[in-house]
Every structure is written in C-alpha cells, then in structure tokens.
Specification:
The chain is an alpha/beta fold and about 325 residues long. Strands 1, 2, 3, 4, 5, 6, 7, 8, 9 and 10 form a 10-stranded mixed beta sheet that branches. The protein is elongated, with a radius of gyration of 21 Å. The mean pLDDT is about 95. It binds aspartic acid. Aspartic acid binds next to helix 2, helix 6 and helix 7.
Length: about 325
C-alpha cells in the first residue's frame, strides 16, 4: 500500500513537472538543425527565421549545421534527439526525394518526425562559371552536348535540390556529366566563383547576389513562370526544356514524440516570424515566397510531404540513380 502511494505521488510529481516544463517552454535555447553548410540557401532561411523567432520566443534559436549525404545525416540525427521541444529541423524537397535515392535510409520521413510548419518556396537558377564558353541556353546545351566528358556539375550531395535540379537538367538534354558533391551549395558556389567547377543549379536565396554582381553566368530559372527578383531571366521551360520545374519548399520538423502543445507553439512562432517585416523584406530580396499562412499547419506539411514523396519517387526511380 505504501509503495503504491509513493508511486502515485511520484507519478503526480512527474506529471506536474512535465506540465510545468510545457507551460514555461522555452526555458533554454532551442536548436534548429540545418542539413547543409553555413552560408548556403537553407542556412540563410534558417538563420533569418531563427533571428526573428529568438525575439518572439525569448530564447535564442541556435542554428546547428549537421552535414552529409544530401541532408540525410542531419535528418537521421534529429530522429534520435530528445523529443523535448528543444530540437527542430529544417529541410527541403530532400525530405521527399531521400526515400527514392537511398535504398537503405535509416529513417522514415513520414513516421519518425513530428510536423511543425512550412516556411518559404524558392526558385532555382541554372548557372555556370563566369568564363564558361556559352552565353545563352542554346549555346550552353550545344557546348555541353559536344563536351560532356569534360564538364562537371556541382551540387550539395545526393538528396540535395541542387542535385535534383542537376539530375533533371541532364535528363532533359540527354547528357551525363561528372557530378562534384559538396557539403552545401555555399562551398559549391565558392568553387564556381573560383572556376574549379563549371555548372551549378542553386536557389535564388544564395545566387541572387552573385547574379546581380555579374560574377556568374545565368541561363534561366526553374519555375514555370518568370520570377520577380530576376525579371529578365527566362525560364528553362520557355527555352525548350518543356515542363521543367523545380521549386524548393521548406518544412520544419521535430523528433517523433515532441508534445503537441510545443509543436503548436513552435508552429505559431514560425508563422509569426514569416510575418515579421524584416523577414518578409529579406525573403523578398532573395526571391523566396512566403507560404500561405492560412494553410500553414502541421497536418498540411505532413500531407504535402506525402504527396511529394509520391511524386518524386517514380521520377527518380526512372533515372536509376540510387545510393545504398
Ligand atoms: N539546399 C541546398 C541544396 O540542396 C544546399 C544548401 O542549402 O547548402 O542544394
């Protein structure tokens, strides 16, 4: 009887402590895991949101860059983090392509995470190094076809959107280029600026400053329609790559088991940040479109991820490019 009373009391204390922890969340800094190198497009989005959420949450949102395997190393690490509301993860289309790209993926994107919110949608741009011997799309395709064994294509690893875009581009023009993977497109861009690599497809959140500075050659954008931030840039689709479209979306996730009240608070914090005028201006300057707030719920992210896994699976499998 005494033991039973003690156990009930302890349970009561534990429950009270848990409720207290939830009620006072956050009481310490929050980690936002970014699966690519600092300074790259995913990092830019994470740090911009993080700075704004730090203001509204009253605790620092610390960005932690966990690198490797096109974002799957970070994703796997987050599934093993404590579901206590102090670890969150930002990832893009890579969350949807990984199941088709990796035969032995250590996590299930639909089962091993809690869904928090979406963030921004970003167009990509097809670039080459400044001195690349092609001045428009036609010349680019002709030169690549004639020299495909000599040309390399940078990306941020298998599962990165730079890899996805590169794969779609190669397929669209019927070539196989040497791919040079980096831990993110920040180092890939440095290699492009240094002339060590030839071609890169990357998000406007990284490329707009370089394009405007004229330090890279731009051939087009990967959206179906032209984009406001680069009004004179034609789409790949209008230049003959029929129906070519890669738009980068971003989801924010937490380890499975993170309590729903904390998920809802984090969802609210992200949505508040997406309304913050500083965030709105920065994203607008970099060509990122903020998602519609009305549909920015955890359930909407889960449904969207499922639809993207279903969409990209067959596309990727058709190309027969996987990793064990
Ligand atoms: N998101 C980029 C990519 O997937 C990489 C990065 O953010 O650095 O290609």
């Amino acid at each position: 009887m005494q033991v039973k009373r003690t156990l009930i009391m302890m349970l009561g204390v534990a429950t009270a402590a848990f409720a207290h922890a939830q009620a006072n969340w956050p009481t310490k800094p929050i980690t936002l895991v970014v699966p690519f190198a600092a300074g790259g497009p995913t990092d830019v989005v994470a740090r911009t949101l993080g700075a704004s959420m730090t203001k509204s949450l009253g605790q620092t949102v610390v960005v932690e860059n966990k690198l490797g395997a096109g974002g799957t190393v970070a994703a796997n690490a987050v599934t093993k983090a404590a579901p206590d509301g102090y670890t969150f993860f930002i990832h893009h289309n890579g969350m949807a392509t990984a199941p088709a790209l990796y035969r032995k993926l250590a996590f299930d994107p639909l089962k091993d995470f809690e869904f928090v919110s979406q963030a921004v949608e970003v167009p990509m741009t097809l670039l080459a190094r400044k001195d690349f011997p092609a001045n428009n799309m036609q010349e680019l395709v002709a030169y690549i076809k004639a020299n495909q064994t000599k040309i390399n294509l940078a990306n941020a690893g298998l599962g990165a959107v730079s890899q996805l875009c590169g794969m779609m581009f190669q397929r669209a023009i019927g070539v196989q280029l040497t791919e040079v993977p980096f831990q993110g497109t920040a180092p890939a861009m440095n290699a492009l600026l240094g002339g060590q690599v030839d071609v890169l497809c990357d998000q406007t959140t990284q490329t707009v400053p370089q394009i405007k500075a004229g330090t890279v050659k731009l051939y087009g954008v990967t959206t179906k329609k032209r984009v406001k931030v680069l009004p004179n840039a034609p789409t790949l689709s209008e230049q003959g790559l029929k129906d070519f479209e890669v738009v980068v979306w971003h989801g924010i996730y937490a380890p499975k088991g993170t309590p729903r009240p904390l998920i809802d608070r984090m969802n609210a914090a992200v949505r508040a940040a997406l309304k913050d005028p500083d965030v709105v201006k920065r994203m607008d300057d970099l060509g990122a479109e903020i998602v519609d707030d009305r549909s920015n719920t955890p359930e909407a992210l889960q449904a969207w991820l499922k639809s993207e896994i279903d969409k990209w699976g067959p596309v990727i499998r058709a190309g027969g490019k996987f990793a064990d």
